[in-house]
């Protein structure tokens, strides 16, 4: 099994979610996160005062899939998440040694 973590533009979440759902991904977690990288925050105005936020909002996805589905999910995120601009995000892939479903003690891929 593989755990895929992706930091993506929040605006691309719906397209990515639709794509991975069609592949049979049954479970994913996502979080609103903030970070910094090569992209610089744009100046914003609040109550007439201009300011530059220190961090840029993004969405973090965590998806655990069987090994045979990992490459397809990664390609889906790459395709649907790409705008071609700085700040499109990153994908990290980890090996998952074991998984357990708490409800009925399923293990391995059956727990997904």
The fraction of residues assigned to DSSP E strands is 25-35%
Provide mean pLDDT, rounded.
Answer: 90
Kindly report the spatial arrangement of strands forming the biggest sheet: 2-5-1-6
Radius of gyration: 17 Å
Oligomeric description of these chains: single chain
Report the biggest beta sheet as strand number plus sense, adding barrel if it closes. Answer: 4 strands, antiparallel
Helix share bin: 10-25%
- Which class do the helix and strand fractions yield? alpha+beta
> How many DSSP helices?
2
Catalogue the unreliable spans. none
Q: Using the alpha-carbon principal axes, give the shape.
A: elongated
Q: What is the straight-line distance between the termini? A: 10 Å
> Which H/E pattern describes the elements?
EHEEEEHE
The count of DSSP E runs of length 2 or more, i.e. the number of strands, is 6
Describe what this molecule looks like in 3D:
This protein is an alpha+beta fold and 112 residues long. Helix content is 22%, strand content 33%. It is built from two helices and six strands, in the order E-H-E-E-E-E-H-E. The strands form two sheets. Strands 2-5-1-6 form a four-stranded antiparallel sheet, covered by helices on one side. It has a two-stranded antiparallel sheet with strand order 3-4. Helix 1 (13-22) runs antiparallel to helix 2. The mean pLDDT is 90.
């Amino acid at each position: 099994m593989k755990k895929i973590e992706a930091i993506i533009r929040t605006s691309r979440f719906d397209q990515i979610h639709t794509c991975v759902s069609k592949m049979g991904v049954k479970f994913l977690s996502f979080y609103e996160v903030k970070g910094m990288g090569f992209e610089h925050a744009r100046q914003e105005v609040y109550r007439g005062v201009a300011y530059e936020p220190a961090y840029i909002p993004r969405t973090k996805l965590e998806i655990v899939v069987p090994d045979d589905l990992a490459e397809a999910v990664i390609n889906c995120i790459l395709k649907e998440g790409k705008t071609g601009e700085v700040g499109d995000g990153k994908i990290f892939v980890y090996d998952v040694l074991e998984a357990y479903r708490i409800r009925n003690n399923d293990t391995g891929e059956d727990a997904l």
